Amino acid sequence: MAETRSTCPYCGVGCGVIIESDGAQIIGVRGDPEHPANFGRLCTKGSTLHLTAAAEVTRQARLLQPMQRLERGGEPRRISWDGALDMAASKFARIIGQHGPDAVGFYVSGQLLTEDYYVFNKLAKGLIGTNNIDTNSRLCMSSAVAGYKKTLGADAPPACYEDFDHAQCLFFVGSNAAWAHPILFRRIEDAKRANPAMKIVVADPRRTDTAEIADLFLPIQPGSDVMLFHGMLHLMLRKGWTRPDYIAAHTSGFDALEATVRDCTPDKVAAICGISEDDLLQAARLFATSAATLSLYCQGLNQSSSGTAKNTALINLHLATAQIGKPGAGPFSLTGQPNAMGGREVGGLANLLSAHRDLANAQHRAEVAALWGVPQVPDKPGKTAVEMFQAAADGEIRALWIACTNPAQSMPDQRTVRRALERCELVVVQEAFATTATCAYADLLLPATTWGEKTGTVTNSERRISRVRPAVPPPGAARHDWSIAGDFARRLEALLPVHGARPSLFPYAPDSEPGAEAIWNEHRESTRGRDLDITGLSWSMLDTDGPQQWPCPSDRAAGVYGNPSASRRQIGKTRLYEDGVFATPDGRARFVAAPYQPTAEQREPRYPFSLNTGRLRDQWHGMSRTGTLGRLFGHVAEPAVQLHPHDMAQRDLKDGDLVYLTSRRGSIVMPAQASEDMGRSQTFVAMHWGGEYLSGRSSTGDTLAGINALTTPAFCPDSKQPELKHTAVKVLKAELPWGLLAMAWLPADRALQALQSARALMKEFPFASCVPFSAGGALSPEGDPERSGVLFRAAGHDPAPDALLAHMEKLLGLDAVDSLRYVDARHGQRRTARLVRAGSDAHLEAVLLGGDTRAEAWIKPLLQQGLPAQALGRQLLRPGATAPAGVSSRGKVVCSCFGVSESTIDCALRESVGSEAERLAALQGRLRCGTNCGSCVPELKRMVRAAVTSRETVGA
Amino acid sequence: MKKLKLVLIGNGMAGVRTIEELLKIAPDLYDITVFGAEPHPNYNRIMLSPVLAGEQTIDEIVLNSWAWYTQNGITLHAGKKVVEVDRIRRVVRAVDAKGEITEAGYDRLLVCTGSNPFMLPVPGNQLAGVIAYRDIADTDYMIDAARTHRNAVVIGGGLLGLEAANGLALRGMNVTVVHACDWLMERQLDGTAGRLLQQTLEERGLHFMLGAQTQALLGNEAGRVRAIRFKDGTELPADLVVMAVGIRPNIELAQQMHLHCERGIVVNDTMQTVTDARIYSVGECAQHRGVAYGLVAPLFEQAKVAANHLAQFGTGRYAGSLTSTKLKVTGIDLFSAGEFMGGEGCEEIVMNDPFGGVYKKLVIKDDKLVGACLYGDTMDGSWYFRLLCEGSDVSGIRDRLMFGEADLHG
């Protein structure tokens, strides 16, 4: 068995993994104990990576051959790599020739490796001569970038993970790290344990799992962050908690800011933010007066029409209180994607150039042109994500090249995005998975390598560069993203009028490690003398000494800082601005006096709710990878919109009732779910639920596009990052009396295929959702593929046609002769169940409930948990929510790693005694829940607390 | 005062049940005389199948012992066949095996001559070893044949035919059921249930030839049947052929009496013959509102009405019967009633449990249960039949209907 050190492809924490493989097939994964990001730990997603690389998944979900779609909406056909790339090159050449370089656009991804990014960037800006290259990082980090640059002068998170151990105050805002960055949260829990004096403040419209650890929780109104920060500064000034000396010595522009915050009085702030003046004061005091305050922030600040202002207003606080440039202090932006940082380093955005250079800066443009050996790079700013798709929808951009991202799921205002994809003359989608919504719009589908296959580097949130290494060869005809881009670029070079005979701009040996290294070296050279200078690093050093932080200029290679004595040298810079000198021309950090702006779409009588979106604990982005594992649907099984219980009651909604969720741009149908975590007049839907999982057919016959059918394209004027975190919506009960629930266990080699086929049927119903499921349970140490199934839920005004239901039954193996059936066609009642005998007992293998689906209450757990069903027989066809005698459920799985369910934990808690901490420890000792990845610990704590309080109330 | 004279022709279930009903309400109104062609007291004809199957004995299925007749002062002439009725003089004349003649006068006459099995009009249907299945004699004959012979063919896959086939198989014969339709018991079951039934019986060793047209019965030199030949030319060895292809009302005597007959003796709602008000007719020989019933339940209802009028109460009226069927083959539960085949304006609710070998179909029309066909689990048959007869609105319990009375109240 071979072991390969690489990184996790999910969030920006950048955990190291050790991939176990038999050379051809990945068979296991574990945390890399030596990686400084995670020291051996992995979260629920990371620890199941090997399952997403199982042969069955590869065969059913991966894109394995170049494909060409001869007509839109048709079935794609296989085409050779040469055929595909020649066609792409000639079409690009023609469009560029006829309409100019700005008639094409590249939309790439924060999940690409630095090398992939570098080549795409060079292709667009160096060869074609357009800045129309943007990435999904635009939806993720661009506000953080703009915030850092405006204040500190460079796009560089000054802090590092070590700072958790030195901080005396953690200020979380707009970050649910407990779910979005689980391993960091584990480190924070450790830090709190080691230093109970450390205070934790959490500001978030939702009471998230992150809030569980908070000493002070500020449930602020959506989008009111700037007012909160200004209000805190107002109080700091009033109380004399600022550091005039530091302000005088190292900053500029404070007077203007002072004027701005002057009228941000506590009463006003409390009113706008929806918090108490006392809590506001507490927050200001903890932030300013703690020995070291580290703020941790993410999409809550970034995905906003005032995203940059939110970032700068927060950084203002750090500068005004000198909470920066020292251990445990600083504004720490938690990156959403594994390599958004690397993308920014190579300038892979429409407004950036290589190595944090600026497009607007003629000097920078000249440097880059020189580096690349081209006459010039274009000065006209390129189209950012939202603008790019708008331009395509308007016919301005005629060819789109999309790599490693799924805009037909993740971009706001899907109607425009889809119009863009339909209108484009050529849509090239370079993807690892064949299952994304965007693939359906592609004229050309190019199979790319992915986790476990790629070679290159990534940079995580703390500026740490790690090597990504292949454990297995690419499946099918898949190629590395940079190889595909380079191969295409060389073909395009031949077709474009080049200025003088010059050697290829892309002399990288295709699909080889030397090729990747050559690209990285080119990138390294571009950083010379820049804030992110890595000329002190080498490819081999990354191998011998492991992951390194930037900056690391050549003169640092001797190990001036970091810890030279360590076995694996850490020679990069751990923390920035310790000398108080910032990356601005005058070395002074700049205060930004941006006034508070409300969200772009305000709640109003016609749209009285705020819609917030965000991550789930066990899912990632559009779920092209996590969505292949039923196990990862154990924590949250199906799409739902969360509302405050009172809002539910007011609208006469019960859990599971279907509602129309409608914004100015679109409407979708989904089940409502009461949640105490929500504020009044606020709703939450996970960002993951795209049209692949949540769809249906509108009254006008359009296919519903998932959550981003609703979200607004309004974006921050500085960062151009859209406000995915706030949309005004209305919630109306949907009267769709006819229900359908169909679920079945399926053999591993068919499950995902069936999932795809079932998905294709979603558009036949006014509402439908389609997800995989599994039994949970502990992970198999051998990494065997897990038993998985498909769950399809739908609703309609009238019963679905028999043919459609028969088709569904066929997909789920319910067409077998030994299926139990109940049919009352006239009343739209149809129930089918299939038992499979195993010796003396029998288990429910598949079931379809059409019409009255209340039996779901007992039949779903019966199937999912494989409870004995031999005694039930025809009882399985009974209507109604009351289970036949002898059916009991385990409840939802809380701990995915060990498959520990709610009811099991509740039982254990009933007998537990002692303090909350002791009970939790007892729980973990007895059931092992929360002892592997720990992602469920906050939930366990909440359950412990609930148990204690309920006991007290009972006792009282 | 002098009692009226009541004569019953036909010592069978229908007639004797009428007498019983009569005795309950008017014990002393009549001098009663009963003529029966068979040399037995009244027995439960429909229990002949268990007898054939060896599960019961003749004695066990006797309904009215010799003693019963005497106790009730009834004159019984068993084994005497009525050959003539003088409606002018109101005298009945019968002869016994020895040719002796018995006469009896009547004020009221009850004609319960029942029905005759229908014999297929094919060459060889008179051969030895070719019988119908109607009475104790037939049953005894089959029981003997099973001892001495190997191959039995039952023509007719209806209720009676299958009971005969099952009985013969249980007695060790190699039995083939020949049936002209596509599935068994087509008058009582739909295709699905019919095929389920066939499956079960095949598992029990019975053989079936469905859609087979009998052309002739072939005999041996001894004049006994040896084989059956079909229209397609194929033959099947058979030392015993049981015809169970239906019954015909026995109206020979009635016609001779010039009572108006169609398929059966035409009677009105008081079970009086339309020709002669002194004469009643009850049972399989009677045709009421165009229907001559072949099942036991209606006969009993008719008997009640007839007795009521004989007792001179003159209230009851017979309005026809809804019938339901059960197959008396041990271990096979099937039930059907009403319009189980559905039809215009009918809605079907169907449940299929191949696991438990159960099939149920309920037919609903205008929110009323109008038909049911159950196979494998007939526990709720009587409940459905009740709902059917009551014609009550079931819309409120429609979704639970299939799962039975217990589920509804439990």
Question: Overview of this structure, please?
Answer:
The complex is a heterodimer of chains A (956) and B (410). By secondary structure, chain A is α/β, with parallel strands linked by helices. Chain A is 31% helix and 19% strand. Chain A contains 30 helices and 37 strands. In chain A, a hairpin with a 4-residue loop joins strand 36 and strand 37 (900-901). The mean pLDDT of chain A is 93. Chain B has 410 residues and is an alpha/beta fold. Chain B contains 12 helices and 25 strands. In chain B, the strands form 7 sheets. A 5-stranded parallel beta sheet of chain B has the order 3-2-1-7-19. A 5-stranded parallel beta sheet of chain B has the order 9-16-10-11-12, with helices on one face. In chain B, strands 21-22-25-24-23 form a 5-stranded antiparallel beta sheet. In chain B, helix 1 (13-25) crosses helix 9. Chain B is globular. Chain B starts with a strand and ends with a helix. Classes of the chains: A alpha/beta (956), B alpha/beta (410). Chain A binds chain B through residues 817-827, 829, 835, 842, 852, 873-874, 877-880, and chain B through 347-356, 358, 364, 398-400, 402-403, 407.
Task: Pick out its properties.
heterodimer; A: 956 residues; alpha/beta; 7-stranded mixed β-sheet; 7-stranded antiparallel β-sheet; 37 strands; 19% strand; globular; B: 410 residues; 5-stranded parallel β-sheet; 12 helices; 26% helix; 30% strand
Mind sketching the topology for me?
The complex is a heterodimer of chains A (956) and B (410).
Chain A: E1 2-7, E2 16-21, E3 26-31, H1 49-52, H2 55-61, E4 67-68, E5 77-78, H3 81-99, E6 104-108, H4 114-128, E7 133-135, H5 142-151, H6 163-166, E8 169-173, H7 177-180, H8 182-194, E9 199-203, E10 216-218, H9 225-239, H10 244-250, E11 251-252, H11 254-262, H12 266-273, H13 277-289, E12 293-297, H14 299-302, H15 307-320, E13 330-333, H16 340-345, E14 352-353, E15 357-358, H17 362-372, H18 385-393, E16 399-403, H19 407-410, H20 414-423, E17 426-431, E18 444-447, E19 456-459, E20 464-468, H21 481-495, H22 513-526, H23 539-544, E21 548-549, E22 589-590, E23 609-614, E24 641-643, H24 645-650, E25 658-662, E26 667-674, E27 682-686, E28 694-695, E29 727-733, E30 738-746, H25 748-759, E31 767-774, E32 788-796, H26 802-811, E33 820-824, E34 829-838, E35 841-851, H27 856-864, E36 893-895, E37 900-901, H28 902-911, H29 916-927, H30 937-955
Parallel strand pairs in A: 6-7, 6-16, 8-9, 8-12, 9-10, 11-22, 12-13, 16-17, 17-18, 23-27, 24-26
Antiparallel strand pairs in A: 1-2, 2-3, 4-5, 4-18, 14-15, 19-20, 20-21, 23-29, 24-27, 25-26, 25-29, 28-31, 30-32, 30-35, 31-32, 33-34, 34-35, 36-37
Helix pairs in contact in A: 2-25, 3-21, 4-21, 4-22, 5-15, 9-11, 9-12, 9-13, 9-15, 18-20, 28-30, 29-30
Chain B: E1 4-9, H1 13-25, E2 30-36, H2 48-52, H3 58-61, H4 66-71, E3 74-78, E4 81-86, E5 91-95, E6 101-105, E7 108-111, E8 115-117, E9 130-132, H5 136-148, E10 151-155, H6 159-170, E11 174-179, H7 191-203, E12 207-210, E13 214-219, E14 225-230, E15 235-237, E16 240-243, E17 247-249, H8 252-256, E18 265-267, E19 279-281, E20 286-288, H9 296-310, E21 324-326, E22 334-338, E23 347-353, E24 358-365, E25 368-375, H10 381-390, H11 398-401, H12 404-409
Parallel strand pairs in B: 1-2, 1-7, 2-3, 7-19, 9-16, 10-11, 10-16, 11-12, 18-20
Antiparallel strand pairs in B: 4-5, 5-6, 8-17, 13-14, 14-15, 21-22, 22-25, 23-24, 24-25
Helix pairs in contact in B: 1-9
